[in-house]
Structure formats: C-alpha cells, structure tokens
C-alpha cells in the first residue's frame, strides 16, 4: 500500500524542514507541486507500486487550494494511505524567521499593487485567509518555539505511527508561552497544587517518580484527571464519527513542567491500554521537548 504525506501550511512554518526529514526517511518528495497535478502524481505513484511519497503544497502552488480536500478524498478512495499535515506558527514567529533568513515572502509579488510590494504582514495575513479553510480540515502542528530538530521528530513520529481511524495526542504546555495553535481540547491545570514550591521537587518534572507520587496524593489531582479522562472517553467516538483523523488534547500549567506533564503521562497511559498507540507531546523543556508514541 502506498503511504503518502501531504505537507502544507503557512510559509515560514517549517515545511522545507519537514519535507527534508521525509526525504531522509526514504520518501520520494516533491516540493511546491501545482495543485492540479497532485492527484495525478500520487495516483501514478500508487499505480507504479511506490511505497512512500511526500508532497509539499502551499500558497506558492498555482491552482485552487480549495480543491485539495476533494483531491485527498479521491486518493483515499483509491486505497492510498494519505496523511495531511498543516504546519502553522504565530505571526511573531513567522516574522522573526523571515528576518533571520532575509527571504521574501512568496506572495510579495502577487500582492504587488501599483508597483509597490506588499509588506510582510500583509502577505502573512493574505496567506492565512487563503489557507484558512484547509487548516480547519487537517491536522495542525504549531511550530512556534520549536527547533528544526524537534519539528523533524514530531513529523517523523506522526507519519510512522500505526494507522488508526483517529490519532489521539496528549500535549503538555506552559501558559507563559501561550496555548498551542493546534490544540482541539484545552484544559487548565493551574488550579491544582504546584510541586514548584517544594525546593526538592522544583528542578524535577512530572515524569519523575517523586513529583508523580507528590501529585498522586492530592484528591484534587485525582478528580481533575478523572474528569478529563471521562470527558475524552465519552466524546472521542463522536469526534471519530465526524471523520476527524486527529484529536489533540492539550493540558497546560504555568511552566509546563510538573502538573501538565504528569497529567499527560497518566492520560496517555490510560488511553494507550485500550487504543494502542497514543502520541505524547511535551512542548516545554522536559529534559528535551519531544513527541513519542505510547502503546499498550
């Protein structure tokens, strides 16, 4: 069976990094493919017996972006195992990346009016409006604050995960760094007892036994955890019935180090027993930010 990955998203969000990682992993990759050739390319790869292909499509690609959902559905009906990943980042991060690379935004010339190039902010806004409908339908990875290495690891784990009707991801984050753009459900754990105020526990994380034991003694933590687990378990089938391929449950605390990490680990452990592989993300520095799969 052909495994295909479609990388799309906002310019400057890391599509080139993701595509190079897939190329290194053995995928036949095409960058900036015109939308009108997308179905033909993947269908021919399927007919020719290729095992892995990856395509990057974005606002630079000539053709109707709005046609992509229809093309994706047609390819899946052919039997192609297709994953679509939308990369995004906040505007501040995008502007900073363009400042570092000193490259022009691909929409600059297209938005040129009366011989005056559009500003970078105008280009970013126009691109968000152009890709907005596509973003709402696909799996979003917020690359704000991620290094190139972290992004490569996240994409690698995502596309190599065993296929499921719905990929469930539990993600911890720090509210001081902002809520992840790709989160579908967000829970605020800042109301729970905080191990940060214990000098012994402060340098540890929610994955350390001492912190886990400290939090496990709190009835509030047990109640909070049970409520989230019950909510997700109850509504997960509904999300799957809505033909959703991915669901990201984000849990935040102040620093993203203790409470949110502990809760994510426990939830992934609970759901992994019944669903097989469940993905875990820790956005804050927990030794190193990472994504991994937890299996029963």
From TrEMBL:
Binding-site list for ATP: 9-16
Residues that coordinate or bind GTP: 58-61
InterPro entries reported for this sequence: P-loop_NTPase, RapZ-like, RapZ-like_N, RapZ_C
Keywords: ATP-binding, GTP-binding, Nucleotide-binding
MF terms in GO: ATP binding; GTP binding
Superkingdom in the source lineage: Bacteria
Domain named RapZ C-terminal: residues: 167-284
Pfam short name (any one): PapZ_C
Domain (RapZ-like N-terminal): residue spans on this chain: 4-158
Protein name per the record: RNase adapter RapZ
Gene for this chain: rapZ
């Amino acid at each position: 069976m052909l495994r295909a990955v479609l990388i799309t998203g906002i310019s400057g969000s890391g599509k080139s990094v993701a595509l190079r990682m897939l190329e290194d992993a053995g995928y036949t990759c095409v960058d900036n493919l015109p939308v009108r050739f997308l179905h033909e390319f993947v269908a021919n790869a399927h007919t020719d017996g290729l095992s892995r292909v990856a395509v990057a499509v974005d606002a630079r690609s000539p053709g109707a972006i709005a046609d992509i959902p229809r093309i994706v559905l047609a390819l899946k009906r052919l039997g192609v195992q297709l994953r679509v990943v939308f990369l995004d980042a906040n505007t501040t991060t995008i502007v900073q990346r363009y400042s570092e690379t000193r490259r022009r935004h691909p929409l600059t010339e297209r938005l040129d009016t009366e011989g005056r190039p559009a500003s970078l902010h105008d280009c970013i806004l126009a691109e968000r409006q152009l890709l907005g409908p596509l973003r709402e339908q696909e799996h979003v990875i917020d690359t704000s604050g991620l290094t190139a290495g972290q992004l490569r690891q996240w994409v690698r784990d995502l596309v190599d995960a065993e296929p499921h009707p719905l990929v469930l991801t539990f993600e911890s984050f720090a509210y001081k760094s902002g809520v992840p753009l790709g989160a579908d459900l967000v829970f605020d754990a800042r109301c729970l007892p905080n191990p940060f105020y214990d000098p012994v526990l402060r340098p540890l994380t929610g994955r350390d036994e001492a912190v886990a034991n400290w939090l496990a003694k709190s009835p509030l933590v047990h109640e909070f955890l049970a409520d989230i687990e019950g909510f997700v378990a109850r509504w997960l089938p509904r999300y799957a019935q809505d033909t959703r391929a991915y669901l990201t449950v984000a849990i935040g605390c102040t620093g993203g180090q203790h409470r949110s990490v502990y809760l994510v680990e426990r939830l992934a452990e609970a759901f992994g027993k019944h669903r097989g592989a469940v993905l875990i993300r820790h956005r804050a520095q927990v030794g190193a930010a990472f994504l991994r799969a937890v299996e029963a």
